[in-house]
Amino acid sequence: MRLSQLGGLTLREFSYEIFMNSDWIFNSIDKLIPFEVCLYHQVVPLSMEGSRIYLGMVDPDDTAALEYLRQLLSYLNCSIVPRSMAAREHQAILSAYLNHTTDSTPDTSTVQRDSKSVTEEEAPEVPKIEIKARYLASPVSVLATLAPAQIVPELLARVLMGGIGRLHFARQAESGRILWSQDGVPQSVLDRLPLEIFQSIINELKRFADLPLLPVRQQKEVELERLYNSTRVLLKLRVMRGDYGEEATLQVLRGAALKFYNQQKLIDLSQEVLLTAQTLQKKLEEIRNAYERNPNLSHKTLEVLPALTQVLERVEAEMATLRDRT
Fold this sequence. Notes:
The protein is α+β, with helices and mostly antiparallel strands. It is 41% helix and 21% strand. The chain has helices at residues 16-20, 22-31, 35-41, 63-72, 87-103, 148-159, 195-208, 255-293, 305-325, and strands at residues 43-49, 52-57, 79-84, 165-171, 176-182, 185-193, 220-228, 231-241, 246-253. β8 (231-241) and β9 (246-253) form a beta hairpin.
């Protein structure tokens, strides 16, 4: 975990336990307590020792949150041990988690983002997503009898119904399973899917997100911002290598979770831009100092200045646009 990922907090402001256990924390946000639950209840999983799971909580006395978390984690047959955590630390860990999911994506060309700040009035410019599902009223077990091309729209329709949805595609040695949760609450499971069907479902997801159908060697992530039933949603698809082959997660963010996610993205981009600008200034100072020390050097290097001036003019235009919006 890099210091730049921690929302400005220094090493002293984070416990040694969190730094040493960051990989487990991020993995547990993926698999034990979904991001949206961590955000809503102001909680993060810290560690697990035997039959105890330690949770950082901004309000350790929040009985409603503790009861919900006990139900959510009941299948682990563990006891919950709450630990007090500052709100700033909680927010920084969630920000670090979001950075982690982005940084672990090596092929950034597959990530689809809308770089413009879209106001509510501009919302119709966001592409709409229309899902045709015929079996929403049927038991989820019926989906196992459908072709993969039919299963995917049915799953998408369920995960987009409302709240914050998540699909987890887990590959086992001899079969696959698909878990659907809504607002952090498990809803249903498609279990013991033949591996051929399971892989075909993942391939259909890849088609939906315009990803290559070849098996991934490294994790790939696609973000699709869409309008669904007049509500802005962000679909985050991750395809990765598991112990037995390809696996995937599909997360739908909306409302407060989407706002938090976009805010953290904006903060991260702003920090990157500032670092880039500082690096540019330093390099220009180095060039100037080199010519001052050696006035007889060839000035061929300075031929880049007109092009650099054009770039800076475009940067200034972008900054003027940002100033107008703020």
